[in-house]
Every structure is written in C-alpha cells, then in structure tokens.
Write a structure and sequence with these properties.
The complex is a heterodimer. Chain A is mainly beta. Chain A contains three helices and 27 strands. The N terminus of chain A is likely disordered. Chain B has four domains: 206 residues, Multidrug efflux transporter AcrB transmembrane domain (Multidrug efflux transporter AcrB transmembrane fold), CATH 1.20.1640; 145 residues, no CATH class; 157 residues, no CATH class; 177 residues, Multidrug efflux transporter AcrB transmembrane fold (Up-down Bundle). In chain B, helix 11 packs across helix 21, helix 14 crosses helix 24 and helix 23 packs antiparallel against helix 24. The chains are: A mainly beta, B alpha+beta.
Chain lengths: 357, 816
C-alpha cells in the first residue's frame, strides 16, 4: 500500500470530507469540490439572478460566481460539488438555492459566498420511494394502478441514481420553493429545503417530458418544458394543469408582468397571454435561434436573450419587442437585471453586464 | 629554424632519387610510396564509384520521425499511438484567401473547389479525411421542433447564385466553423489535408520535396497569379520539410562559395596554383567519398547531415595545406619531390591522425544523443573524417610526389620562412604572442579570460531551452512559410501549437463516463495555465451533442452519467469530428492549444499533465504524454536539456582523455582544455545575446567546436613540450612551437571558419545559427589557444621537463 493511498482517507476524515475515491480511484463530481479558477466567470454559466444588490451566477463544473459591483468584478464561491449547475434562485438577499446535474441542490445563507448540499441525485430517489410507499399505504394516491405507477417511477428514478438533473429552481420565500427537472422531476419544500416532497403525482405530464423552467408570474406559478409543455398551478395550489399555446416546440422559460405571461423557447418562438394562460398570442421576435433567457427589469420592461446572443426589449409588458444593440453577441443562457438599464447576461463565455440601450 | 633544422638533420636533403633509400621509413610509408600507382588508381576507382553512388542514390529529405528523440517516453507514447491519433500527426493546412472580396464570391468558391479537388488527387493525401468547404465531411446541424437536422455546409445544389450563396452563408453560421474552416474575417477558408506517412501505391515514404513542389506548382503558382485575387497560405509539417529541403539545395550552392574561399586562402598561403589545385581536389575527393558512403549506406541528406561536407572539406583543406607546406619547404631546399613527400608523410602522418581522431571524437560523442538526425550527422561526419585519412594524409602526399610544387612557390616558402626568422612578415605577430609566456602578460591573459568566463557564465545562466520565436523556428521569421503561418494564426482561432495528452482505454472505453469526466478535469486544469488558449477533446463535442439532442438547451451542455447519452454523443461526434477519437474508441487526445512554444510554456503544460497523469491514471484510463507538435517539441526539449549537459561531459571527457594520452601530463591537459572551456562558456553567452535557444541544432555545435578546437592545442603543445623536454626554456619552447605550427594553427582556424561561415546565409534558421556559433567557436578557440596556452604554460608548465616523460607520437615520428 503506498503512502498516498493512506494519506488521502486520513485527510478526508480529518477534514470531514466524504470519502471520495471509489475503489477504482475515480472521484465523483458530487464528491469533488469545485475548483477555484479565474476563468470560472468566463466559462459556461447557465443561471443568473439577483440576491439583493448582488448578482449570483451558476454554471459548469460547480462554478458559482458573484459580483457586488454590477458585474464589473466577480468572486468565486466555495461549492462542495463540481457538478454542472444550471439554475439559481434567491428569494432573500442572503438565502438562495442552486440546482443542476447529478440531481444536486445547493443552499447558501450568506448571499451566495458559501454553499452546502441539501440534496443530490443519490438521495432523491429514496425520498421518492419512501414518500410514495407511505402515501400508497395511506391510500391517498387514488387508484391502485396510479399508486403502482408512481411507486414504479420512484423505483426507476432511485435506480438511476444521480443521472437526472434538476433544470430550474424557484423559491417564493426562505421556506417555500420548488425544484423541477428532466423526466417530470419535481419536488417541493416548505421548510427551506430541509425536507422535500415529491410532486410527481401533481403534474399533468404523462409522457414524462423535461421541465425547463418554473416561475411565479402575477399570482400564479407556471412550469414550461419540452414539446410545448406549459402548466399552471391551480387556484387551490394542489395540482399543475395543462395550458395550450398551440406550439409543439420546447419552451425554455417563462416570465411576465402586469397581468401578462410570456413563454419562450425554440427557434425564436414566444407567446403571450393576458388571461392567465387561457389564450395565447404569438410574439414576433424576428429570431431564428432559441430564446433561452428572460427577465423583468422593472415596471413593464422585459428582456429576452437568445442562444445566438441577441437581446430583445419590451417596454410594454411584452406587447412588442425590439432588438437591443449589444457590445458583443455571445451565446446567452440566462439574464438578470440590475435596475431598468443594466442587464447581466450569462452564457457560454461566462457572465457580463450590458447596458440596455 | 632550430626545430626545422633538427628535424631536417635526420632527413637530409636528397636531390636525386638514386640517393634515397626506398626501404627507409615505416612499413606503412613503404607500402604506400613504393606502390604509388596502385594507390592513385585505387583512389580514382573509388572516387568514380562513390561519385556514381552520390549522383544516383543520394536524396534530400527530412523525415518527421528522424528529428525527434525516439526513445524518450513521451515520444514512444506518441509513436505507439500515432496511427490512432488522426488530425494530430501530419496535416497540411492550406488557406485560400480572396484578396479582392470575401469567400461568398462565386469566383472564389470555384477556385476553392478546384484547389480542393486538386488536393484530393495529390499523391500522399489521406483522402478520406480531407476537409474543406467542398467536402461533405464539413457539416452543419440544427435543432428543430422535429429533432436534429443537418447536412454538408456546401449546399448540394450550389451554383454560385445569390440564393445558393445565401444558403452557404447560413450553413457556415449554423456549423460554427468560423475560426476553424472559415477565417474570422470571412476573407479566406481552410482546407485541412491529412497526409499519409507512406504512399499506399508504392509503399514508400512520402517524398516531401516532391509534395512541396507539387503544392507550389499546382496550387500556389497556378492559382496565385496576378489579377486572380487569390492568395494561398500553406502550413504544416510536410510543407515545412519541403521548404527545408528547398533550403538545402540552396545551402549546397554555398558549398561552392566555401570552396572558393578555401582556394583563395590556400593560394594566398602557398602562391602555387598546382598545389592549391591538388589540396582542393583531394578535399573534394574526400567529400565525394563521404557522400558516396552516405548514399551506399542508404542514408538521406537531411538539414543536418548536409553540413558534414562543409566540415570535411574545411578539415581536409587545412590538413592538406600542412602537408603541402612541409613538402614545399623540402623541395625549396632542393629535395626531390618524391622524397619530400615521404619526409612529410613521416613528419605529419601521426600528428594528422591524432588531430583527425580528436575531430572524430567530437563527432562520435554526438552518437550519444538519441535523435536520429544527430546520430546520422555523427556517423556521416565520422565516416568523412575516416575518409580524410585516405585522401589527405595518403593520397595527397602521393599525388604531390608526382606533381611537386612550382619552383617559385617553393623558393618563396623558404624566403618567407627566413624573413620571419629575421623579424619580417608575420614575425611581429608571432613575437607578440611569445610575450604571453612572461609573467605580466600571462597574468593579464589569464585575468582577462577569467573575467570573460565569469561574465560569460553569468550571461549564460539566461540560456533558454528550445525555440524562442513564433512560427516555425527552423525557418527565418520573414520566410514565406512563417508569413503564411502568421496569416493563419491571425485569421483563425486555433493556434498552430498543439499539445496533446493521449487518453488510452480498453476498446469502447473512451466514451465511458468516468473517463470523460477525468479527461474534462485534465482539460480544465490545463486551461488554467498561462499560455494555454483553449482545450479540445471528445467531451466538448459530447456536451454539444447532448445539448443538441435536448433542443439545444445550454442547460444540457454536460457530460451525462447516462451511458446511452454518451454513446449517442460519441457516435454523432465520430461523424463530424472523427479526429477526436480512434475507431474502437480506445485512444482519445486531450488537446491544448498554446499561445506559443517557448520552453516555459511547454514545461508548464508538461508538468501539469504529468502530475495529472501520475495521479489519475488507472487501467481503465491511462493518461499518456504526449502528442501534437508542441508535445513533441516538449519531449525534444527534455532530451535536449539532458543531452546538452551529458554531451558536454562526454566531449570534454573524451578530449581530456585524448590530451592525456598524447601529453601524459595533467598540467598540459589543463593548459589544453582551459581555452576550450572559456570558449564554450562564451559560446553559450553568445547564444543568449543572439536569442538562440539550446535545441537539436545547437547540440552539435559545442561537440564540434570542442572536438575540432582541441587540434590547436595538440599542435602547439606537442612541439612546446618536446622542446622543453629537450631542455629549452618555456619562452624558447613556445617560440619554436609558434614558429613550427603557428601558421598552421592560424590556417586551420581560418579555413574552418571559412567552411562554416557561409551557413550564416542559409534560409534555414538553425543552420545559420550553427554557422554563427561554429565560426565563433573555431576562431575563438584558435585565439584562445594562441594566447592562453603560453599564459597558462607560464603557471603550469614552466619546468615540466623534470617531472614528465612524454610520449609524443608526433615528435617521435618526426625525429625518427
């Protein structure tokens, strides 16, 4: 036995790190803290949001960066995993959640500087299995077939381990939030992520399509996803119900203000509803590429960003959009606003602040 | 004249052959001179044979493999996996630029198509992997509501119409090939031409010279005419080698110049056309033999071995001149030319042998460097030196015994000798040199040398390993190749300096999740290093494809744990980027594109890669250094760095041994070696000042400089020590030594320098560097010997007669 093999476990024990290396010497990304790198803010970042006056962005290899000077300079957070992260939500300036691949859910209580793991894909399946087994025993899952299907599904997801990603996170406040992901993955928490409740039985997603985003617009919570999927949490807060836009392409995001809901997605497609999703009007974006990100920038002002690095701006709550000239067109994944006139765009080449002209 | 007279005393002036005992002299001398005709005829026949060989068999080439250190572990890894590493090996990049518009000009596209077709049909091209806008392998893909859509970038129906052009424009944008196949300014596009190592039709190695000429004639010359608006830029190893070979032809021309300078020097020295012609002819014969041997042994002339004839010629001329000098003096005193030739043979054969042996040692030490071109250089130079023993130590005196020298020149030689004895001519210089045996001058000389050595040493600490300039360091910065390279570096995103780590797995292992994650970590680690612009490996493509199959969502730019997803990604990648891994997915490179190939950059990358490989290699995925041109250069740097020290050690060891065998006196060895050490140090300082790094091409310089440079000390000290042994004081001994050999030393130094100085104008940069450094070493070693030997002798050899018994082969022979 060579010395290195001895030292590593000792070190790990001393530092309270999980015993990382498996028998074949491979360290899973879930057991490998994100590496500090000056390039973290310059490589792929998929989620960006405000945490009070701070901006926090999350991305590849467990990178989380934050800026207190409107995007001029970025610092990298301490993150216990090096999984690819895709979304972030800060309901308060201090408390935030980030999600991503390997089913990872991270939590910060200091405005995004330090993160701890709340959940990962290795544990999510068991939560599901336990939950649905208990529910089935109580008989609260409806028919026996429905219960069996849910238990089956829970077993399948548990067996897949960390294969399935969470693709978006949204918290209403420091206690209540949702995480959604691939193949109908959805959990809810009411205690700030201490416990998670599977909501698979509360969606209308028989084909197990990916959920790409969820947001509260007005008073309603919307989910969008693959193949034109748009769902809205019903008034009782019990179930997500399907809305119909007439479009069968994938939606990447949902936004809106002042009574208008906007969903956007593949090949420049975007739709707007003024009646809570009952009817939708197509928005002429003039774009051919995927509209990946959106943000509300104050009263009536909405920005959309696309994969080819275009930005569209509306000052009438999405009734019409016009292109915004950007200093540099870089592939965009997400956008957040700092006041009305500055946007922070995250994408393949990192994160950068842009003045909205 | 004391020495000469002493020597002459035993070799009386013999005016007529009848008075000469044909059976005097050594066995070898009798064998040669009593069968003169046989010797001449044999040499003529041998010359014709070698000439035939050289003329018919000798080829110019410079193969990729022969310039790299074969048994360095990194190189072994590369060679073991080379066949599996497509795209990293021998690739030509040909950029077609539209100087009057952009690439959407239909006329441009027509030209591009023709060039692409032409290249497809060029022998040696690995057609299957040729890529240009006109090959179907360059594709675009797009995500739609229905799923993936894709096709070749060049629309199948392209006809130059505005509609087709618009389609092409769109396809280029969708394919994301700007910066790779299309210049960032849309004024040019690239044709990537992988080459085969062997012609499949003939099974022979690709002839780079022919290929390069084909490219120049069929591509550059044909399409780059005035008014065509087309400019061609070509880079790649094969083109580089082709240009080097063209450079070689030019360097061969310089041989004529070197020879002309030598002729002028000899003529100036002898003032005798007949003997000048003889000396030059014998040296040319030596070169013919050497080239013939090279040809018959199946070697090719490469940029290194092409320099051997220059050295052989120069050494030959200097040795020949000495022979002639002796014969001339004898004839001037009235001795019959045959007897004079035999006397000279007696006097100088062993001395010449010793000097040539020292040269051979210098060459032979190069054998220790594990780089085939250097070994070839060593071998062919050693053969050349061996040949010189025949042509210039045997054939030349024999020929002189027939021809004699012109009476005027012989007389003049005597007169000059007497003039110098009476303080005219060069006498001023010689008597000035004699003063270095005095304490004040000796102190001064040693002090100045010490100061120079210390300053030189301090400067030489800055000495860098490897190549220091951008572009191909083999060629000059303003060469066509390097201009092309600069254009391509400027218009395309990926640099031409690639460093690859080879990831080796069992079959189908390269798309394994863990392997991809580890490779991704390596890539990211490398990307942190200064000098690494970006990294590319299969994982990048797999991420893109995974996102692509999820509606192009950037959230899916990930390495999925699901093996099916990875399998699909790799399968798709193999269609669009087949060079990312091999057929059975067992070899995959992680490629770092570097901003330059300076030694610091390379060693940073090597260090990090080696550390990572050490820590993370398992049977499932081994990380092996290295491939890519920068990888090979890094490995070469490592070898050169080690070889530089060991070679110095060996060459000095050998020379010290040789000196000790000759002098049998360690003090004399010190006196002989110190001037060489000072020159070696100054040479390194000169390299720093001229911005020349230690590289394959500079390795031979020190070995040659020291190996040949020790000749001077051998000549000077042999006589000096013999004189001292005979009871002369140091001052007198050195004076006589200078009288007897000073001219020869000066002559050797000048002819050697003349032989190599023409390299300075070579279009091949490293030959020019070698030319500068060798000229410096030959001249400075000569000056060092003339000044430092008396000065050091003052301190070390003032009274050697008591302690030492010498075994001076030279003097023994001379005084027999």
């Amino acid at each position: 036995m060579n010395i290195r093999n001895l030292i590593l476990p000792c070190l790990a024990l001393t530092l309270g790190l999980p015993l990382a290396a498996s028998a074949d010497g491979f360290r899973d990304v879930l057991d490998t803290p994100a590496r500090q790198s000056p390039f973290a803010a310059k490589s792929l970042l998929n989620g960006v949001t405000n945490a009070g006056r701070r901006v926090v962005a999350v991305g590849q290899r467990g990178h989380i960066v934050y800026s207190d000077d409107a995007g001029k300079s970025w610092r990298q957070a301490q993150v216990p995993v090096s999984s690819d992260l895709v979304a972030v939500s800060f309901p308060t300036p201090e408390k935030g959640w980030a999600v991503g691949h390997d089913g990872v859910v991270l939590h910060s209580v200091d405005g995004g500087a330090n993160w701890t793991r709340q959940l990962d894909g290795r544990g999510a399946g068991k939560i599901m299995s336990d939950f649905y087994a208990a529910q089935a025993a109580k008989g609260s899952l409806g028919s026996a077939e429905a219960a069996a299907a849910l238990i089956d599904e829970a077993g399948r997801i548990a067996a897949q381990g960390a294969e399935n990603p969470f693709l978006d996170v949204w918290f209403a406040d420091e206690n209540n939030g949702f995480i959604v992901g691939a193949f109908n993955l959805i959990f809810r928490t009411a205690d700030g992520g201490k416990t998670w409740e599977p909501w698979f039985h509360r969606t209308a997603n028989p084909n197990r399509l990916h959920f790409y985003a969820l947001r509260k617009v007005g008073n309603s919570l919307y989910i969008v996803g693959e193949q034109g999927l748009v769902q809205k949490l019903d008034a009782a807060g019990e179930r997500f119900v399907t809305l119909e836009t007439g479009y069968r392409g994938t939606f990447f995001g949902v936004t809106g203000s002042d009574g208008a809901v906007i969903v956007h997605g593949l090949r420049g497609h975007a739709f707007r509803s003024l009646d809570g999703g009952a009817s939708w009007q197509k928005i002429e974006t003039g774009l051919q590429d995927g509209v990946t990100g959106s943000s509300v920038c104050g009263e009536g002002r909405i920005v959309l960003v696309s994969q080819a690095g275009r930005m569209l701006l509306s000052d009438n709550s999405g009734a019409s959009f016009r292109p915004v000239k950007l200093e540099q067109a870089v592939p965009a994944s997400a956008v957040a606003c700092l006041g009305r006139d500055v946007s922070v765009i995250a994408g393949a080449r990192g994160v950068s602040a842009q003045v909205i002209q | 004249m004391a020495v000469a007279t002493d020597l002459m005393d035993r070799m009386p002036i013999v005016r007529s052959l009848e008075d000469f005992n044909q059976n005097s002299g050594t066995k070898l001398e009798r064998l040669i001179f009593n069968n003169r005709l046989v010797v001449v005829v044999a040499c003529v026949l041998a010359t014709l044979l070698f000439l035939f060989g050289a003329a018919t068999k000798l080829t110019l080439n410079a193969s990729f493999e022969r310039m790299i250190p074969q048994s360095q572990p990194y190189i072994k890894n590369y060679l073991d996996n080379r066949a599996e590493l497509r795209g990293l090996g021998n690739v030509l990049r040909i950029v077609v630029e539209n100087t009057e518009g952009d690439i959407f000009d239909p006329k441009y596209q027509e030209t591009l198509r023709k060039i692409s077709d032409e290249l497809f049909l060029t022998p040696g091209v690995d057609r299957a992997w040729l890529k240009s806008l006109w090959t179907p392998g360059v594709r675009w893909t797009e995500v739609t509501e229905e799923g993936f859509r894709g096709g070749p970038v060049m629309p199948e129906s392209y006809d130059g119409s505005p509609k087709a052009t618009e389609q092409l424009r769109l396809n280029i944008a969708r394919a994301g090939i700007v910066g790779r196949f299309v210049g960032n300014d849309f004024k040019s596009s690239m044709i990537v031409v992988p080459l085969l190592d062997k012609d499949p039709a003939t099974g022979r190695q690709i002839d780079y010279r022919a290929l390069s000429r084909t490219l120049e004639e069929n591509i550059r010359h044909r399409y780059e005419q005035d008014g065509s608006g087309t400019r061609i830029h070509m880079v790649g190893f094969a083109k580089l080698v082709g240009d080097l070979i063209e450079g070689l032809s030019q360097v061969m021309m310089y041989f004529a110049i070197a020879a002309a300078i030598a002729v002028a020097i000899i003529y100036f020295y002898t003032r005798c056309l007949r003997s000048t012609a003889l000396v030059v002819a014998c040296s040319v014969v030596a070169v013919v033999w050497q080239l013939g041997l090279v040809a018959f042994l199946g070697f090719e002339l490469d940029p290194f071995s092409i320099l051997v004839p220059f050295l052989i010629f120069a050494i030959g001329v200097s040795h020949g001149a000495q022979k002639m000098n002796g014969i001339m003096q004898d004839i001037g005193q009235g001795t019959h030319r045959l007897v004079a030739a035999r006397y000279t043979f007696r006097r100088l054969f062993l001395a010449g042998m010793t000097a040539l042996l020292a040269d051979a040692v210098g060459f032979a030490v190069l054998m220790l460097i594990d780089i085939p071109v250097i070994k070839d250089l060593a071998l062919s130079a050693s053969m050349g030196v061996a040949v010189l023993i025949f042509t210039n130590l045997i054939l030349l005196p024999v020929l002189l015994s027939y021809t004699g020298v012109s009476a005027g020149a012989a007389e003049r030689s005597l007169r000059a000798d007497q003039a110098e004895s009476s303080g005219k001519g060069m006498a001023g210089l010689w008597s000035w040199l004699e003063r270095f045996t005095e304490r004040r001058w000796a102190l001064g000389a040693v002090g100045v040398s010490l100061a120079l050595a210390v300053i030189g040493f301090v400067v030489s600490l800055q000495l860098k390993i490897g190549d220091l300039e951008a572009g191909a360091p083999e060629l000059r910065a303003d060469s066509r190749y390097n201009k092309d390279n600069a254009y391509i570096s400027g218009s395309y995103s990926l640099s031409s300096d690639q460093f690859a780590v080879i990831v080796k797995t069992p079959a189908e292992g390269c798309l394994n999740y863990q392997t991809l994650v580890e490779a991704d970590r390596l890539a990211w680690n490398l990307q942190q290093l200064p000098g690494v612009q970006t990294t590319v490996f299969l994982g990048n493509a797999v991420r893109q494809i995974t996102a692509g199959s999820n509606e192009g969502s950037p959230k899916w730019l990930t390495l999925a744990r699901n093996q099916n997803v990875l399998n699909y990604g790799a399968q798709q990648a193999s269609v669009n980027n087949p060079d990312l891994f091999n057929n059975d997915c067992s070899v995959m490179p992680v490629i770092a594109y570097l901003s330059d190939h300076r030694a610091e950059t390379l060693s940073r990358v090597v260090e990090e890669s080696a550390r990572f490989a050490e820590a993370n290699s398992t049977p499932e995925h081994q990380f092996l250094l290295a491939a890519g041109n920068a990888g090979i250069e890094a490995a070469t740097n490592i070898v050169v760095h080690e070889a530089n020290r060991t070679m110095l050690l060996y060459v000095y060891g050998a020379v010290i041994l040789l000196c000790f065998v000759t002098f049998r006196n360690w003090r004399a060895v010190v006196v002989a070696i110190v001037p060489l050490v000072v020159t070696s140090i100054l040479c390194e300082a000169l390299m720093v000042i001229l911005g020349i790094g230690v590289k394959v091409a500079t390795l031979p310089v020190i070995a040659l400089g020291v190996g040949i440079g020790v000749d001077y000390a051998l000549y000077l000290l042999s006589i000096q020590l013999a004189q001292q042994r005979a009871g002369a004081s140091l001052a007198v001994a050195y004076k006589r030594s200078i009288k007897f050999t000073g001219k020869v030393v000066a002559l050797v130094g000048i002819t050697l320098a003349a032989g190599v100085v023409t390299w300075v104008w070579s279009p091949i940069k490293f030959q020019a560097d070698m030319g500068i450094l060798l000229t410096f070493m030959f001249v400075w070693n000569m000056i060092g010997a003339l000044v430092l030997i008396p000065a050091l002798s003052h301190f070390l050899l003032d009274k050697p007669a008591r302690s030492a018994q010498f075994n001076l082969s030279m003097l023994r022979t001379a005084s027999r």
